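Archive entry. Fields below.
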Amino acid sequence: MAERLREEKVFKDPVHRYIHVRDQLIWDLIGASEFQRLRRIRQLGTSYVTFHGAEHSRFNHSLGVYEIMRRILGQFGRRLSFSFSEEERLLCLSAALLHDIGHGPYSHSFEKVFHTEHEEWTRRILVGNTQVNKILRSVSDDFPWKVAAVIGKTYENPLVTSLISSQIDADRMDYLLRDTYYTGTNYGFFDMERILRVLRPLEDKVVVKHTGMHAVEDYIVARYQMYWQVYFHRVTRSAEVILRKIFERARDLYRAGYTFNWRPAHFIPLFEQNITLEEYLALDEPTVMFYMNEWCREKDEILCDLSQRFMNRRLFKYVEYGEKVGSVEWKREVDELFRSVGIDPTYYLGVDSPSDLPYDVYRSGDDGDRTPIYLLMPDGKLEELSRRSVIVESISGKRRYDHKLYYPLDLLDDGTRDPNTVREIKRRLRVHQ
Amino acid sequence: MAERLREEKVFKDPVHRYIHVRDQLIWDLIGASEFQRLRRIRQLGTSYVTFHGAEHSRFNHSLGVYEIMRRILGQFGRRLSFSFSEEERLLCLSAALLHDIGHGPYSHSFEKVFHTEHEEWTRRILVGNTQVNKILRSVSDDFPWKVAAVIGKTYENPLVTSLISSQIDADRMDYLLRDTYYTGTNYGFFDMERILRVLRPLEDKVVVKHTGMHAVEDYIVARYQMYWQVYFHRVTRSAEVILRKIFERARDLYRAGYTFNWRPAHFIPLFEQNITLEEYLALDEPTVMFYMNEWCREKDEILCDLSQRFMNRRLFKYVEYGEKVGSVEWKREVDELFRSVGIDPTYYLGVDSPSDLPYDVYRSGDDGDRTPIYLLMPDGKLEELSRRSVIVESISGKRRYDHKLYYPLDLLDDGTRDPNTVREIKRRLRVHQ
Amino acid sequence: MAERLREEKVFKDPVHRYIHVRDQLIWDLIGASEFQRLRRIRQLGTSYVTFHGAEHSRFNHSLGVYEIMRRILGQFGRRLSFSFSEEERLLCLSAALLHDIGHGPYSHSFEKVFHTEHEEWTRRILVGNTQVNKILRSVSDDFPWKVAAVIGKTYENPLVTSLISSQIDADRMDYLLRDTYYTGTNYGFFDMERILRVLRPLEDKVVVKHTGMHAVEDYIVARYQMYWQVYFHRVTRSAEVILRKIFERARDLYRAGYTFNWRPAHFIPLFEQNITLEEYLALDEPTVMFYMNEWCREKDEILCDLSQRFMNRRLFKYVEYGEKVGSVEWKREVDELFRSVGIDPTYYLGVDSPSDLPYDVYRSGDDGDRTPIYLLMPDGKLEELSRRSVIVESISGKRRYDHKLYYPLDLLDDGTRDPNTVREIKRRLRVHQ
Amino acid sequence: MAERLREEKVFKDPVHRYIHVRDQLIWDLIGASEFQRLRRIRQLGTSYVTFHGAEHSRFNHSLGVYEIMRRILGQFGRRLSFSFSEEERLLCLSAALLHDIGHGPYSHSFEKVFHTEHEEWTRRILVGNTQVNKILRSVSDDFPWKVAAVIGKTYENPLVTSLISSQIDADRMDYLLRDTYYTGTNYGFFDMERILRVLRPLEDKVVVKHTGMHAVEDYIVARYQMYWQVYFHRVTRSAEVILRKIFERARDLYRAGYTFNWRPAHFIPLFEQNITLEEYLALDEPTVMFYMNEWCREKDEILCDLSQRFMNRRLFKYVEYGEKVGSVEWKREVDELFRSVGIDPTYYLGVDSPSDLPYDVYRSGDDGDRTPIYLLMPDGKLEELSRRSVIVESISGKRRYDHKLYYPLDLLDDGTRDPNTVREIKRRLRVHQ
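PREDICTED_STRUCTURE:
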């Protein structure tokens, strides 16, 4: 079943040094056009606006997750004499490699505006009429469905699932290290090698040998820091807000029968909420960028202005939203004030409210469907991590929000608006001048 | 003249840790649309095909060159009490930042096929009707011309020029370190901090204090290694060859009156060799990718096949070209054999012959217009580097070539060709089976 | 007053890359014999037993603290236009360089057994008849006293003091990074450059610009991790316990009139609690090692056995001490049992109870005399760190203890003891077999 | 024969991240007192005087060589299905671990003055009455002799020998990386992982797959740089010269019947050239330091002065020796001039002439008994490295010397000497003032 390559293939990787491929299956999957397409989708969406180094693709990250999985299985075999069946071994590796294959360009904004879900597209790519599907079926007819089940967390052996998506999995370990490397920040760094050595497969889950507690603590803090220092960076989010507004404006214009200079052929199926798998796969970041470039020259002032802002990093400012400012009433008044100085709040006022639950003990909520981390104590019993670590306990189960309202300060100051109203707007937005 | 920012701006950079901006001029240049455009052009063109980490942009590199220049000037000031006039200080910084601004997408292939020159476009961007030009003129009316002169190596003060383009300059130092970092190889690493400390401005050039000789040796070897290990990697070049063939095919089709599914509007000015500055600036990698994606569905088989090869990394194989194989006669015969099995050699046989002159003493030839590196000896005299270093001497003045002929092995093996001719072709191409 | 060196001196340092010396005063202090002596005292005492890389000296660390201080002052000057008087500048640098000069060999064990205090010896070296004192007096007659006051935290300007000893100071920043580097662990790593950029001198203390909160969080967690992962490592502490027992045994033998093979001349003033400055300075690690080597051949079995254990890493095992085991009564019984199988508990049972207070808000207790860390908020107000950071809050003010009882398992198992008693001892010590 | 540990032991190592021990034999050897003694001997002798970070011990390095050997064998097994017999596997590992076990303190100076040879002591420790010997004999009676044969390069299977001592072996790879890490220089860095992947056992030697040529080039240049930048650093050599003079003076005094304050018991067997294995093993760096400390207080002025110089880094200056200065005649005159101002040239003038042969093709000379490096070409033939690499060719077979004469400039300037003679001496020594 599992054909080995005559000679191991090796990729040079800045994060894991080398990525090793020994199975024909994996080699073929990497060559599939749906996988190569991940080269054209950046791992961190708009983060490059803030951290110019963060230009790495999901292709990059997917190889990394695969490599970590390969090393975990190697450790299990070499040190613990534990091994999966040959099919489950390939399942682990394929699921690791393909877990993000459904992602589109700038997923975060894209999905919010167009109501697509990358998880759903992942499933469709795996089981639909694709190169990836054909390759997976070389293992067995139901293999694509099994890979989809693992990624969708419904696979029968939860041990396999937990290696890819739990609170300490191959996916998270790779993205923390990789995003740290490319952004040049150090927050996401932790001793992965140590963690790999203390992971233990135990019935239906992976647990951590108690001597590794501090290494895992370090990993949890690394993840926490990356969320607040990198992923939720206020400047990145300003770019995200603008991107969403661009997509909304283009969609609204299309629906209103507006004639574009350059017909947005690739976007129309999205605007009409009627997109095929083939059309979805044709949507990558260069395509979005191509239209954005054109939109910089559109006659519609709003679409044109927003696109130029995005391309040339002329971003929105923000005000913290929530304590004294931020009620529905307050927002309605600000909207009105914007309208009265000729700025459409639909496209020029954007609320962004990311939140993160850095670690959770219970199986509830969106992130909460990840099992907690258990320490394997010397006496053979399991103890949940946050009961031993005050640091983890301090951030456990606490969802933290960050609400911000983004707005174009430069427009207010362009000299064409009524000074009194502008002053009033600024007072409400707490602009210090 | 040189307005300082109220508060220093800082970019996080994985290579230099932080990039510091203190001048309003530099801040404004970074925000110019022509500079932001460099975010959409990768530093290493097709190298990402071989080294998946190498997805960084010229924006990235340009900031790095600027930062190195800033540090060189800082060292000169702090340690040597040497400083340029305020205008020349800004000139150094601006030229460092903008030295690559004329680059287009995949310059290497692009320029070969379309006979454009990024140096010429740099000049046109600096002195033409652009945001960059407007910002530069805020210093003085002839400042854009001065920046162009520095980059073009015709500026009156050769000391300024040599900081940006000599055999040891801010440009080279940044790209070696940066390309090493992103590819994950270690070949390009050297101790830049040490080199910065031993650089000495001396009349019309920058020399190196003799105690730094081994550090400079290390830099020269690093550069040499990067050329042969990374820049001229055989797999990258295969992608380059295919890219050139794609451009050639598209151009030939256009000229032949072929009707494209999707009219290649952005390419037509190039095909007609009649491209304006604005049209040139609209050409970035996403645009090329956009068309390439479309060409994957073109009815012309050659354009379609080549585009799919490029997108999905189905590359050409190669044969070393030059010793026993490779004469004009030999090539003509191989062309004929290809034709006889129905493969057009114009688009399916590509010769690639990069060469490098790692270090040169004399002022002749293309790279040779870079002054040699001088060591400042204890007695105050200058000695040319290769006279003191056997390692540098060993590679000095020796241009090394690498000729390869690229061809599609899979096409020959697709089962539709005459087996005898295919066997004969393989014999000539020395395919081991 | 402050003579500058004609040419800056530079030390290559693996942690800070380069250490720069520009003042004659600093250069002279580094050359003083009392400072060179720090080359012969390891930074981490017995940690090398656990982490073989940790062989670096206090000389190493002292240079590092100096360099960080130099960079802090540089940042203050360049970015904030804040500068100390020339005398206080030298005071900062000298105090940073000399803050550990009173340390003896294996201070931790040494001070416990012989009741010396390195802080007191630091003071005596600074103001006594030493080379360091002579050099410091070249600044002004009372300069040595001022340096002593800064190190002793009694200097009149608390801003100066806080740069060297507060909860985020040059000393801590260097040792975390340095000990991390040499041990090869990653726990102590944090982004020092970022922290230096957000430090702000504000009246009598150094505060942190609010944008640096997460970087400081990272530093606090790094420190916390290093304490539990490195400094309090159970194996290191086993070596510490043995070392203390050796010193105690040698002292007790001396007091009992025992005749040593090799008269412990250098230790006698300590044994007699009557040691001069010159005698103290002659005590370095090689001296201790020299005697330890000799003691490996002493006829007294206990001194000989303990010394061989230390030299050849034949360490004690431990039992967690405190929950069910560990009462005074329990300990008395274990002592008795040891005695009954012929092992003297005075020298073969050692309790070790390190504790750490990772961060504290109040000015009480031993570590608590360090001021809390304040964030400088956008509105100009100060907020104490743990009020903004849940992570810091979680470890703030909580002193954590770790009690262990160390004992020689191999002695119990040497086959010469009564098996029933040994079994009983093991049961009490919870030895799993 | 080869008992495996129940659980793998792991050492944290800054260079190789982790060092893995799975064999009881290796674990026992590491615990042997002769091996633990290597903790008390620095890897780079006096280099710490120049590079303060270089305080790491031979213990450190020996573990590293062992780990590289373990990885080489792992690669051979996993990738090439090549394996040694179980005995030869242990032989490789043991020889790697123990190859430096005969080293004494400051070997370089020590061996020159006292005519000891660490290779000979290695042999004696392996086959003599030692713990190491006893442990090795647990494999087989002649196993210690086999280990000695491998280290002495007389073992019957040259493949085994070449893994430990050839021009690219586990020893060299470790010391380059390790010394680079601890000094903080970057010169010795190369991509070891890559090299391990291209090593191929081929009959009686290890060859390099041709694709690894540039990685090996990098390694050769790294080695070359380390010799001239670190190992032969002029300041380190000044300390070496002084150390030799101290040893010579102490020996000469002893022979002349001088009465030392503190009888140099540990040195006397050396002075009398009649030293036993036990006495040799008792000589470590702390012992040498202990006496040096005492000698700083000796009444003999020369011994006292030289010792203080060494301890407090008051070093000699140097003059390049060889071009215009340096003939026998010239030296005799300088000696005479020194004598005439009351400075004994025997102890105050020292010539130091290290040389290095960075790579050699032939089997002649001291370093030359190392086989050249062969590349395994695609056609299965071997080609010697320097025939393919111009860089290696440039330094191949060229022994480079560096002669320097060291002298105490400060003594000449102490104001007690005849000014005219001093002026004449300085003229001859080319002192620039």
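CURATOR_NOTE: The longest strand of chain C covers residues 4-13.
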